[in-house]
Every structure is written in structure tokens, then in C-alpha cells.
Amino acid sequence: MKKEEITPDTVYYTTNLNTLIQVVDKTDEMKKSDMLKEEFIKLLGIYVANRSGLVLVSFKEDKETINGCMVISRHHDRRGQYLYIDFAWIDPEYPKLRKKFEEEIMTACKSRGIERIQMRMNHGFKAMDKLYGTYEIGRILEKKVM
Fold it and tell me: Which helix (H) or strand (E) holds 111?
């Protein structure tokens, strides 16, 4: 994706190496995260190589620095397919981006016939319930795709 093609605060799918590096670097900035950076890098490599996952990003006005990112992957269990949010970060200065990322994920689910979204959390359950209408299943949150 060329810089001149980017619209700030718009969600894009990417496999661009420099952008993926920015996504990986966000794992260091996350408070209370127990994610291992090395494992996350391996996961991203697998997702990009076999197309089992997607990396979504949005950019600031400079069209180079990300202000939001999400790594999602498709999985199957006994209840069918579900989309799993492996990692999400949105700059607190851009609260409206949450809705844009949610809309993009819902569109991805609907186009693929996926009816559930899951994510792992280690804090902030009540906040996620208020923002997205999720509910706690152990340490996994799930939302039905409407």
C-alpha cells in the first residue's frame, strides 16, 4: 500500500513488513499484557504465510504511524467456525476507531459465514462488556455476530 493511497483513520488489511513491525512493537506498549513477543512474531508469520489470519491497521495523519491494529484468525471447534482476536491495540486518542475495527470484523465474519468472535482477556472485562456487549466464558470473551 502506497502512502498516497492511505486515508487516515481508515481500517486496512496489511502484510507490509514495516507495518507488521509496528504491530509487533505495540505488544511492548501494552500494560498488563502477558504476550510473548517472539511467539507473536511466529504467529504473524504463520498467518501471513498460510492466510489463516488477518492483520488490520489504521494510520495517523502522517500515513506512516499506526493508530490502531488488530490481529485476527479463523478457527473451528465443535460449535463451528469462530474468529479469534489474537491482539488488539487502539490509540486512546482515537476512540472512534474502536467502532471502525468492530465494523470491519463483523463484515469479515458475515462474508465468511462466521457466527462467533472470541478474544482472550486478562483484565477489563466490564469495560469490554460495555463497549462490545461481550460476556465472560472463563478467560475468553465471546460475541455473537448479528
Answer: helix 97-112
